[in-house]
DNA sequence: CCCTTTTCACCTAGGTGGTAAGAT
DNA sequence: ATCTTACCACCTAGGTGAAAAGGG
């Protein structure tokens, strides 16, 4: 690994909220026009060279080739079934794929401040409903050398936080997820009843 | 000039609206917390090398060292007076000054689409009220050579549109400017009477 | 039956000039 | 007298899940 990335670290923000969702089995709504994810995927970066240029990327790794069903009106667990989707088409890639370029910032203004990757995500990322995904974050050093492509494999570092995995859905399956979204997402305030935990 | 910038051109967007304001004497509200400018300063860029990296900057050049007064309740013209402000402190600089880094975009995603420089501008740019300014736009080629600083003077190209000059104010002086702002700025719709020209 | 799409009321978030009070 | 500040009603812009309708 290049020394410009080997000391890079990324700390997940809102970790306790992510874990609370993960215990219930996080679900993310996907729509044709694009939908934000909540909780927001945010990391705090450190260990970068302030004088170097970086590109930050994000992608979503399919956790399996299975399609999930919600069962016979049962709210407890979803049974995974084999899927007829062409295999290997959305396999995890070890190299950071050009997924989602972050909002600008030359690096020195990004360091230390949370790098939030919500924002408009129109048809940039396509996820299949009823499939599970693992978000992944990549820090890529922009190598100034002319033959930089030969070193591409050592110029990046990737981060994966298991508590951020989720199932893409078009409508919520687990009502507990719905309730936790309503309780914790400011934009869903209109659906709150009393005043439960103020996240 | 470096060949990466010498063919660069910038075309001002909303030119006719800028000119209509300029005929009346454009005024821009400034506040402590920061205020957007309207019309928005937008340019369409062309003539850039898709494979090169650029940084886009903006700054505001004081048009003179004078302080303006509005006269004895007269709405017609403002008389310029000599100002006791330390001269030369905000002189025009020929080199692009680190003024206002644009919203991200590596260049290939910015080319062709308007590069709008409104957005939150908190205390990043400080302008003195009752002074006139000329906005300026800079395209800077990010030179990958190690001794790039030696070529800094040839790696940028600047653009200045006279119709975008304005006077910074804390409250509007010319009522015609107020009316044109209300008529053309969507956020001021609440102050419109009938339905004049739909800008 | 299960999943998807569309539309909607209800929010957050923030950009307007007006207005009145304050500062110099 | 002239300029500045703080607050406000009224907008734009867009992110929520609910509900109903549509599709296979």
From TrEMBL, chains A, B:
Keywords: DNA-binding, Nucleus, Transcription, Transcription regulation. InterPro entries: p53-like_TF_DNA-bd_sf, T-box_DNA-bd, T-box_sf, TF_T-box, TF_T-box_CS. GO terms for cellular component: chromatin; nucleus. Residues 76-88 have a biased composition (Low complexity). It holds the Pfam family T-box. GO terms for biological process: cell fate specification; positive regulation of DNA-templated transcription. It is found in: Nucleus. Residues 72-98 are annotated as: Disordered. The keyword Nucleus applies. SMART domains: TBOX (SM00425). GO terms for molecular function: DNA-binding transcription factor activity, RNA polymerase II-specific; RNA polymerase II cis-regulatory region sequence-specific DNA binding. Residues 12-193 form the T-box domain. This is T-box transcription factor TBX1.
